[in-house]
Design goal:
Largest sheet: 6 strands, mixed
CATH topology of the largest domain: Nucleotidyltransferase, domain 5
Number of strands: 26
CATH architecture of the largest domain: 2-Layer Sandwich
Helix content: 25-40%
Number of domains: 4
Number of helices: 19
Structural class: alpha/beta
Bound molecules: adenosine monophosphate
Strand content: 25-35%
């Protein structure tokens, strides 16, 4: 599939047509100086569409910087998505309006093609809340959406994937620190394939020293600057006149600064050391946050090209297990043909990799995946979690016995798995020691009755239910059900559900698992992070990607619980808590 990738910024529009299968760029270009000499976003996009029409792209992928809380993944653009991108304007006033202008113009000109928004922030959406929150008034922060969002998502995800391939290890088994060091710069801690911390925050101004952006700065210093200079001038100073440019007084290009430093220019030297120091601080911090690191990945114009800066950043990290090989660093040259070069010494425990990023290819792949034409494009993301309360499945005979001959289940609420619903009907469970009332019946009717309870319920009822996959009730525990039309004793059918993940064949391919595999799942982002072992993979194309656990398991990980009536509660898929999956063994 061919995808036209458009990156519509405030002062330039960049574009590329990419063949997703081969990864090859068929054409590319940029139109600069938007807003000058009559060049508008509309005229730029029109020229691009004309230039690229001959390549007959099948879809258009748009870079969108800020997806706020809503977008966890690349998304097919419709009017509702446009409204949501617009709602993020206050969070990215420099970027989102320009991104959206490009989308509107391209959609109007190419109405028959699918358009997909690929968000910089999406990769970081499921960061644990300890990494997301700034320590300011919580209610105010929530109301204004002031928290860490993170950026450069496609680049961090892309280089992490290439690094994992190079190391011949599944990304879900690696702890990575990825350093995107270009004109903009950010660091990312990636654990189990997910971003768990990143240096850019509410805006792309926080974190590392950049070409013209300041990076970390005491909030008190910002206040003082605002008092002295006013808001607009401070904004300009911190975004456009700071960083390498501000320190060196020589502009934002590290090549010029390195050349001047070699001539003895002290400000140039200062800029270089402050820059490297900031990166090293983040390496140390992220290694601590993850309890270690397997590889440090350098990318972006500086990470890929500056031998000297790489040396300054990676020197004397032996205590971490990282040892730079000076010759390999000197000779490292990444390209499309050789996108990964290892610059660490042979026996180093932590690898240092230079990786060529390709945000456009990542955007094209994600676009192709969303429109259904991609291959091997899904980087496994976090798995939404649903919490099942105790519940009963009935067959025709048990329905007749409990609710009267010919009675039918009525829908109380549809559940996330297609066709499944919580019924209005409830039953009581009666065991040797006690009873539990108001146990929800799930529909539709099945071939055989089955009752699923938690370990805590077992104590209450005085029963001993085996842990079983759904449907495997042979030889399971007995239980008595009570309904409005009578009681029913089941000789078997009572189980404690085996925690499991529903997924499609496509999901399974992306995660590298098969139906029946057992995996480990790490829950992060809640108050009590926890790794579940023995999680069963269940694959069917009609399933929706979702992990099902019971209320005891949810309690252990401090996830939102089922309510006291024993209702079936499903946590919303966009909760901050998420599960990352680590393959344990293939069956
Ligand atoms: P990017 O935004 O990823 O394109 O990175 C652009 C920046 O990379 C430039 O502004 C330079 O500072 C830096 N850069 C590119 N090539 C080199 C090089 N050979 N040596 C040092 N810095 C470089």
């Amino acid at each position: 599939m061919r995808v036209l990738v458009i990156n519509c910024g405030s002062s330039s529009v960049k574009y590329r047509v990419i063949d997703v299968g081969s990864g090859e760029a068929l054409t590319s270009g940029a139109i600069e100086r938007i807003g000058e000499g009559g060049t508008t976003h509309a005229s730029a996009v029109a020229a691009i569409l004309q230039d690229t029409a001959a390549f007959e792209p099948a879809a258009v992928g748009h870079r969108v910087v800020h997806g706020g809380e809503r977008f966890h993944d690349a998304t097919l653009i419709d009017d509702d998505v446009i409204d949501a991108i617009e709602a993020c304007f206050p969070l990215a006033p420099l970027h989102n309006p320009a991104n959206l202008a490009g989308i509107r113009i391209a959609r109007e000109a190419l109405p028959t093609l699918p358009h997909v928004a690929v968000f910089d922030t999406a990769f970081h959406v499921r960061m644990p809340r300890r990494a997301k929150h700034y320590a300011i008034d919580l209610e105010l922060a929530n109301r204004l959406g002031i928290r860490r969002y993170g950026f450069h998502g496609p680049s961090h995800a892309y280089v992490a994937g290439l690094a994992a391939d190079f190391l011949q290890t599944d990304v879900s088994n690696l702890r990575l620190i990825t350093l995107h060091l270009g004109n903009g710069a950010s660091a990312c801690a990636i654990e189990l394939g997910s971003s768990i911390e990143t240096s850019m925050g509410l805006t792309p101004l926080e974190g590392l020293v950049m070409g013209t952006r300041c990076g970390d700065l005491d909030a008190g210093a910002v206040l003082e600057l605002v008092r002295q200079l006013g808001v607009d001038e401070t904004d300009h100073l911190l975004n456009r006149q700071s960083g390498l440019a501000g320190l060196s007084g020589l502009g934002n290009d590290l090549r010029d600064i390195e050349a001047q430093a070699a001539e003895g220019n002290d400000r140039a030297r200062l800029a270089i050391t402050v820059y490297a120091h900031a990166v090293r601080r983040y390496i140390g911090a992220y290694a601590a946050v993850m309890g270690g690191v397997d590889a440090i990945v350098l990318t972006g114009g500086i990470g890929q090209n500056s031998v000297q800066m790489r040396r300054r950043i990676l020197q004397q990290l032996d205590f971490l297990g990282l040892r730079l090989d000076e010759d390999r660093n000197q000779d490292a040259e990444v390209s499309a043909a050789t996108p990964v070069v290892d610059i660490s010494a042979d026996r180093a425990l932590v690898r240092a990799l230079v990786v060529a990023t390709n945000e456009e290819l990542m955007t094209a792949r994600q676009t192709a995946r969303v429109v259904g034409g991609g291959t091997d494009v899904r980087s496994p993301g976090p798995v939404p979690i649903a919490i099942s309360g105790r519940h009963a499945h009935l067959d025709r005979a048990s329905m007749d016995a409990l609710f009267g001959a010919g009675s039918e289940l009525t829908v109380y609420r549809y559940l996330s798995q297609p066709g499944q619903f919580a019924a209005r009907q409830t039953v009581s469970l009666i065991g040797p020691r006690g009873r539990i009332d108001k146990v929800r019946v799930l529909g539709p009717l099945r071939q055989a009755p089955q009752v699923e309870i938690s370990r805590t319920d077992e104590f209450e009822l005085g029963v001993d239910a085996p842990v079983r996959a759904s449907g495997k009730t042979q030889g399971s525990a007995p239980i008595t059900l009570e309904g409005p039309a009578g009681n029913l004793h089941l000789k078997e059918g009572l189980i404690c559900a085996w925690r499991h993940i529903h997924m499609t064949t496509r999901d399974a391919e992306a995660y590298g698992v098969e139906n029946g595999d057992q995996v480990e799942v790490a829950i992060t982002g809640g108050d009590r992070d926890l790794t579940f072992g023995d999680v069963l993979i269940r694959v069917k194309d009609s399933y929706l990607l979702e992990m099902h656990i019971d209320t005891d398991e949810a309690n252990a990980a401090e996830l939102s619980q089922g309510d006291s009536s024993g209702d079936l509660l499903y946590s919303s898929p966009d909760v901050a808590v998420s599960a990352s999956l680590r393959r344990k063994r293939a069956r």
